[in-house]
Amino acid sequence: MTGPRATRIVLLGGGHAHAFVLLKFRDFVSKNLETVLVSPGPSHTYSGMVPGVIAGHYAPAQAQIDLASLARRAGAGFVQAQAVAIDAADKQVVLADGSSARYDVLSLDVGSVPAETAPDSVAVKPFDPFLARWHDLLQAHDAPRIAVVGAGAGGVEIAMAMKYALDRRAAGGTVELYSDRFAFAPALAARIRGALDRLAIPLRIGAAPAGAFDATFRVTGATALPLLGDSGLRTDAHGFVLVDASLRSVSHPDVFAAGDCASLEGLALPKSGVYAVRQAPVLAENLKRVVRGMAMLDFTPQRESLALISCGARYAIASRSAWSAEGRWAWRWKDWLDRRWIGRFS
């Protein structure tokens, strides 16, 4: 006679939050609890260090978390596969090879993708194919002409990192930044414009890339993956999974979501890795609590978050609310924070 079936948690996506969940599950996975991470790749590239990788301050491996190893150390299974559908009614995730992953509890950390705004452009997310395209571009062109579409914090960081890297090469190259808006507070906007000017990066607001570029990279607003809207889960108007304060689906209590793919009911938070990192401890604890039948914890987002915008060189702009400052010290601060975060998973 067999005993009761083990509860099965499926972690779909290997983002910031799920990496932290695995870290906290090392002493929790047991014969009565099966945990499986499903991710399209064996590693996760930490978004905060991507501009530093482009600029040459970090090797790609320094910005990556080995998900397969992390899962193994946590006692969890690891399935490298692309999810193509979520069937919330039948409680399963359908994979690209036709197989499926059954779950009792599902946690989503699948991120988002940049909006399609420029034809034949390369999206910055997912990061691995983007970094591969960047490497190929440098191999194929001595002095590439590059357009970056999207002038939010991510777009200006990517543009400045690329120009800094090109300026280190003998032949150089050009980078132009395009966007339909430049939505920063006046003092911060002035600092960013100054940093762009020092690198000779033109900022073209309200214009689309024109002329012959060797590559166009897209760092535009986040859009939801289609499988979320087709899942049967309740979503917001933009297709992101709608969750309550405990990061639990408002329509399916056996589903949790964090990071870019989640939208907190009643709040309009920016799609930023800062929130995924801060949601991670609450998500990890609530996944433990849900299998024990315990009350959930609430995630309380901070009212103001610190932004550290790298400027290509080992120099950064720091801002919080109306305050801003800049210097090499700000880059060292950012470097320390990033290395401390990713060092937890080594």
Write a structural description:
With 346 residues, this protein is an alpha/beta fold. The chain folds into two domains: 175 residues, FAD/NAD(P)-binding domain (3-Layer(bba) Sandwich); 139 residues, 3-Layer(bba) Sandwich (FAD/NAD(P)-binding domain), CATH 3.50.50.60. The longest helix has 20 residues.
The CATH architecture of the largest domain can be named as: 3-Layer(bba) Sandwich
Query: Low-confidence parts lasting 5 or more residues at pLDDT below 50?
Result: none
Strand segment tally:
22
Distance between the termini: 42 Å
Shape: globular
The H-level CATH homologous superfamily of the largest domain, spelled out, is FAD/NAD(P)-binding domain
Structural class, from secondary structure content?
Answer: alpha/beta
* Strand order, sheet with most strands: 5-2-1-9-18
Mean pLDDT, to the nearest integer, reads 92
Helical region count? 9
The CATH topology name of the largest domain reads FAD/NAD(P)-binding domain
Tag the structure with descriptive keywords.
FAD/NAD(P)-binding domain, five-stranded parallel beta sheet, 9 helices, alpha/beta, 346 residues
State the gist of this model.
This protein is of the alpha/beta class and 346 residues long. It has helices at residues 16-24, 50-55, 67-74, 127-140, 153-167, 186-198, 226-229, 273-292, 328-343; strands at residues 7-12, 33-39, 43-45, 64-66, 77-80, 83-87, 92-95, 100-102, 105-108, 113-114, 122-123, 145-149, 174-179, 203-205, 215-218, 222-223, 241-243, 255-257, 262-264, 307-311, 313-320, 323-327.
SSE layout and pairing:
Elements: E1 7-12, H1 16-24, E2 33-39, E3 43-45, H2 50-55, E4 64-66, H3 67-74, E5 77-80, E6 83-87, E7 92-95, E8 100-102, E9 105-108, E10 113-114, E11 122-123, H4 127-140, E12 145-149, H5 153-167, E13 174-179, H6 186-198, E14 203-205, E15 215-218, E16 222-223, H7 226-229, E17 241-243, E18 255-257, E19 262-264, H8 273-292, E20 307-311, E21 313-320, E22 323-327, H9 328-343
Parallel strand pairs: 1-2, 1-9, 2-5, 9-18, 11-15, 12-13, 12-15, 13-14, 17-19
Antiparallel strand pairs: 3-4, 6-7, 7-8, 10-16, 20-21, 21-22
Helix pairs in contact: 1-3, 1-8
